[in-house]
């Protein structure tokens, strides 16, 4: 790999598989658009994924969906389920109090991946989000929290990896890096996103994220999402920030002080 630049064909194939997995099923044209590849390239990628058994064509439509075989790609991923087990009752209780959906996300590479959410527990949502959904680390409240509370060396490593990506717009990256106010996020204990552009309803929601720690080290981000049309970000911060911080602190305490299984 020359100067950190990935193999383009593999990057494109992974992008196609992630797009299919995220949306449930896609047509060939949608795969090409989501993967940002020419249509003939998308056809070759789909043929390869079909051959490997990672996707299949729907019986009645010319659309493609992931198969159960994609789950085997995660067999080596051993992130502790303790996070979900501990956080779940807290975020469900928080959603009951505030009404808005809450999610837990961890950093995976240069993205934030949902580990759990309460979208299914709230009527105040445009879409349901499930574990595995990803968001860009520099353009999400959870990602900003993750970057701010990462070690300086780790944060620079992530930025260095993003800079050599063939997919990134360098002007956007420069703006995103400048807007990442690490000191402010650490001091105030939260990050916010005025409009979320990389979810299933671009531009229609805002979000506030707070950090979760385990034994003093950053573990995950907890995010509340709300409709842009429902209230200003400043109002949401005034109404909900302290409850968000208290809930994250309770999760952090439980993660750092686990109850023995026999006493649970």
TrEMBL record:
It holds the Pfam family IclR_C. SUPFAM superfamilies: GAF domain-like (SSF55781), Winged helix' DNA-binding domain (SSF46785). The keyword Kinase does not apply. Residues 7-68 form the HTH iclR-type domain. Residues 69-257 form the IclR-ED domain. It comes from the Bacteria. GO terms for biological process: negative regulation of DNA-templated transcription. Keywords: DNA-binding, Transcription, Transcription regulation. GO terms for molecular function: DNA binding; DNA-binding transcription factor activity. This is Helix-turn-helix domain-containing protein. It comes from Novosphingobium piscinae.
């Amino acid at each position: 790999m020359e100067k950190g630049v990935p193999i383009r064909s593999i990057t494109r194939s992974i992008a196609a598989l992630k797009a299919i997995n995220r949306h449930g099923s896609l047509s060939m044209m949608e795969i090409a658009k989501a993967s940002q590849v020419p249509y003939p390239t998308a056809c070759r990628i789909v043929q390869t994924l079909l051959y490997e058994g990672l996707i299949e064509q729907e019986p009645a439509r010319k659309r493609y969906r992931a198969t159960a075989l994609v789950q085997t790609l995660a067999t080596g991923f051993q992130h502790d389920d303790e996070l979900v087990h501990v956080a779940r009752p807290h975020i469900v209780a928080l959603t009951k109090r505030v009404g808005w959906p809450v999610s837990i996300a961890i950093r995976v590479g240069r993205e934030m991946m949902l580990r759990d959410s309460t979208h299914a527990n709230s009527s105040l949502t445009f879409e349901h989000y499930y574990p595995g959904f990803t968001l860009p680390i520099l353009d999400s409240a959870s990602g900003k929290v993750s970057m701010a509370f990462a070690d300086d060396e780790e944060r620079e490593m992530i930025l260095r990896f993003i800079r050599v990506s063939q997919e990134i717009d360098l002007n956007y990256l420069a703006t995103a890096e400048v807007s990442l106010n690490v000191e402010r996020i650490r001091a105030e204990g939260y990050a916010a996103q005025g409009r979320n552009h990389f979810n299933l309803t671009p531009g229609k929601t805002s979000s506030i994220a707070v950090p979760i720690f385990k034994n003093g080290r950053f573990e995950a981000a907890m995010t509340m999402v709300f409709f842009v049309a429902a209230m200003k970000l400043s109002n949401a911060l005034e109404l909900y920030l302290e409850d968000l911080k208290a809930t994250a602190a309770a999760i952090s305490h439980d993660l750092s002080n686990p109850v023995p299984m026999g006493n649970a």
